[in-house]
Protein 1
Amino acid sequence: MDRRDLSAGFKERLAQVLASHPTGKGQFLRDVGMDRSALSQFLSPDSDRLPRAETLRRIARVSGVSVDWLLCLENAPEGRQEVAESVQIEKAVQADGSTPLDKWRSAASGFKLRYVPSTLPDIVSFSPENVPDARGGGVENVLGQVSLDDMDVEIAMPAQTVRDLSARTGLWRGADPEQCREQLTYMAGVCRQNYPALRLHLYDGTQTFSAPFTVFGKQRVALYIGDAYLVISSPDQIRGFAKQFDRLVRRAIIGADVVHEMLDDLAARVR
């Protein structure tokens, strides 16, 4: 392949990357460290200029593709993923006391948020004053400050989590029965009042397992690993996690439209 063909192929692939980048052209250029004049030259039909190797590597890393794909040397965007450094670990609480969740939620505004919690999700949980966290000590607060006017929220979790709460077993062994009853009643009310903007699906945890993760629109996936998040920003991998979430929804034994009825029933059974 001569330089003109290589440049023409690169222009086409770079245009695809720009069109699909979740945070827009400006953020893409900042992440790559490229100015707009250089981008214009790379895309100009009158130029056969190609980026230097280091710039190619940064474009590949930011966009989650391979250098070979950018140069039309292979057809699969992810290639062997040798240069797609799209995974990192971020602390749940930063050194200054802040959390990356605020930034992630803001970036995903207007998109759907898909959430598999480690225990009760905070949007349907409450913790009365002087009472321990109703989620059994969970520290995940993925949905804090979420406005259901700005985004749809879909949650998938094992039915066993709420059944344990009703039976006061597992994380809630020995918990105050009145607190468990109030928690389930509150949860039912939130699901009833906010459907369909908020949709909670319950699957059978004895048949299906999932690690806790959140898909923040098209921007990133965050897997909860205790006091930190494993963050994935490759577009292909984000789509893969979205499909995994959809599989959990298809396996639900209690649908989002009737989950409040089950929760009210469980609340009535607390002893």
Protein 2
Amino acid sequence: MLTAVCCTVAIAGDDRRRLFSRASYDPFHGSAAAQEWVAYSDHAAVIRVTREAAAKPDPKDGDYIPRTVTATVTQIVWSRPKAPPLPKEITLQANGWYTALWGGREEAVREGASRLVPGHTYVVGVTGTGSRVKLIGDDAAVPYDAATFGRGELEGGAVSPNAYRKAVRGLPEDAVAKFVISETYNPRSLRDFQRLLEGTSPLNIYRQAALNSLYTDVNLDRKPDDHADEGAGDLPGRLRRRVSALDSGTDYFLSIACSGRGSAITLRLTVNGTTTTRQLPCNTGNELVAVKQPRGEVMYEIASAEPEAGAVAWNVSEAPRRVADLGR
């Protein structure tokens, strides 16, 4: 097995796959913990994948070939209140393939995650309706062949409950996978899983970890931290910034922190000609806003919604790369 730069991708020539590390998660869409399932899912359901197909490649993704899978919904385990109905048959985007240098294809596989292979059954967390149903994240699919958690497919290969248990030990605390495969006198059932979701409050664990790791200097030394743009200023008042020379093929974070007695600030963010306005809390740590693949100039304006906000600091930082990007 050969290890690529930064040890993020392992290329296994014998089983024709590229294995991406768990570090390649998207912090805006955590999906490992029960809190994240109830925060982002419309439904948790049992599905059986029946077929797969290659989707049209995007030239900017290089040798990556997207993939879709079609699945039959056999049982709905949990639903968000007022969620749209889930069709009996759904089509999901799944990790695809890379064109191999020696010909043929290599499977794109996420470490510790299921690839969604025809013939296998899974318990999944999904959102959307009609043709727009999708997994909430790579971790939102648990093997469930023969009505047994942990039996089925993982990382593109067959897995037993014991092997699955070992594979998910490093997941975040209170993770769905760790719960359903935990060693108990009686194996976990769908009813156990349902009770877990019904008794859980929504929270994005991965997003909070990303916020905690993004350093923001609140009006202290004002020194740059190798970000695309950063600074600090005093509120009330309006701070307007224009950021150019960002890579249009890259996602960014706009991280904002506020200090003072005011309870809220207002952000107006313009990306690719579209302006959005958001109210963000003050004195609660960093807030993280997505800047998706900007084309041209990014503009943002920060203002205090109340008179005693105090100081505000901001960073524009590159987001973690997506799985498809890491293979470029």
Protein 3
Amino acid sequence: MAQRFQLAGAVALITGAASGIGAALAEGLAAKGCNLLLVDRDATGLAATAGKIRGVSVETRVLDLTDAEAIRALPDWVAERFGHLDILINNAGVALGGRFDETHLDDFEWLLDINLRAVVRLCHAFLPMLRARPAAQIVNLSSLFGLIAPPGQVAYSTSKFGVRGFSEALRHEYAGTGLGVTVVHPGGVATAISRNARGRRPPTDPEAAKRASVEDEKAREAFGKLLTLAPADAAAAIIRGIEARAPRIVVGKDAKNAALIQRLMPVGYWKTIVRLSGGAL
């Protein structure tokens, strides 16, 4: 596992490739000579990402990651297009804001289906193909909120801590083999995740619904202001980590600082983070 991963000529599958970190990863890996299989439910965005790729083979698949049957069929598609897979990057993710007592459980399940269950299903589906390679890498994107758990992010943190635990256990199971597992914890990356996040379901009372809508929009704006790192910079850090076969990649100064505070204060870290933010959180 100490040997660097050779990206030139490798085949990588990226979920959530229509925008954000996924699209930036596609461009960055292509620049390294990596052939690509790009997956997303956004057909227009997926075509736009593929249209920017030059010099390598690229295939696209429009797919909803809540569809377990479609995920099970993906290895056959990969085998037909390239015959093998070297890198699986589980990048796709969604957000759901609001306190737990304001969260509809159907929305919670929707988020878990995409952020956690799809990761598990994709890894399970592609394990035989990845294990057949002399060297292969699974790359699962957790989050800063897979290191710390803020109020108002119960659903998202649940999924991202789940990705972290799943990835670490899987890495330990395949230690000493050619299959490596990397878990990525990005901080505030400037993607559309906050803009596209689901909020709490509106109350039935019209006035209460109006107030809730205003509050949710303010929360989205506040969260969006924390997303400052360019997707290309995040992707570059992740690609360096893949080449180094790093077990964990923490991306961004905010994530690195929060990870340090959490290690020093595993129970009281949130009070410290709020204090250091000047009460902005």
